[in-house]
Design goal:
With about 250 residues, this protein is an all-alpha fold. It is about 75% helix and about 0% strand. The protein has one domain (about 5-245). The chain is built from 10 helices and no strands. It is globular, with a radius of gyration of 16 Å.
Length: about 250
């Protein structure tokens, strides 16, 4: 993995991505996968590496948002009940590399739109999520999380905001733990199906944590990093194009 061309540039960009995602309560798997796609990482190493990074970055992000009192346990459980087992199931499934890239590219569109604040605006009128709604949304996102190697927060957060199930900070806190449990479940599913985690991945974890600690702390205290989000959105767009045509 560390023999990848331009690995130094990759290691420089990694903490920037983790900073931005942690600041909004996300683990950053969609960003890591985009970077790995840009630097031509092997598809079989991308999924487990992204989920491993998610565990640490989302964990740090959740700690800070929970500490500030934004976590809504009931909202989280309504999604997690079905997402955890289905993330495990998705993690056991191996799909063709070309199909994997196309599905990932489509899901990265959600990340781009979220970074640009195209959808998912915060509303004051908060509604209670119905149990069947939470189970359905959590199950669908959980399955694709395990299948592709993401935590699902980049999809869950906009849904929470669009359907008025929580405010911005609550969505960030719930999404952070949602990402953590899905990443853990998906990673266990992959390992059970024979996937191995490269030792070099733990070096990437260390690098990503540098940005995650700063992002989680500043994000939970409110930070304006819109310009940096535009830059990340640009990187994600390039990755989408690369994934669609390679």
């Amino acid at each position: 993995m560390l023999q990848t061309e331009n690995i130094s540039l990759f290691l420089l960009m990694l903490p920037i991505v983790s900073f931005l995602y942690a600041s909004v309560g996300h683990g950053g798997a969609s960003g890591y996968l985009a970077l790995m796609a840009l630097f031509s990482f092997a598809p079989e190493t991308m999924k487990p590496t992204a989920l491993l990074l998610n565990l640490f970055v989302a964990g740090i992000s959740f700690f800070y948002y929970y500490k500030e009192g934004y976590f809504n346990k009931k909202l989280f459980l309504s999604f997690a009940i079905t997402s955890i087992p289905l993330a495990f199931l998705g993690g056991t499934i191996e799909i063709d590399a070309s199909i994997y890239k196309k599905i990932l590219a489509i899901l990265l569109v959600f990340a781009v739109l979220k970074m640009l604040n195209v959808f998912g605006k915060e509303k004051e009128d908060i509604k209670n999520v119905k149990l069947w709604q939470g189970l359905l949304v959590g199950g669908i996102i959980g399955f694709f999380s395990g299948l592709i190697g993401i935590g699902g927060g980049i999809i869950l957060t906009p849904i929470i905001l669009l359907l008025h199930w929580g405010n911005m900070k609550e969505a960030a806190a719930v999404s952070a733990l949602f990402i953590w449990v899905n990443s853990a479940s998906g990673l266990v599913g992959q390992i059970s199906s024979g996937v191995t985690i490269e030792k070099e991945s733990f070096l990437l974890v260390f690098v990503a944590l540098v940005g995650a600690v700063a992002g989680g702390y500043l994000g939970s205290k409110k930070i304006n990093n819109q310009k940096l989000r535009y830059i990340l959105a640009f990187v994600l767009v390039i990755a989408c194009v690369k994934l669609f045509f390679t």
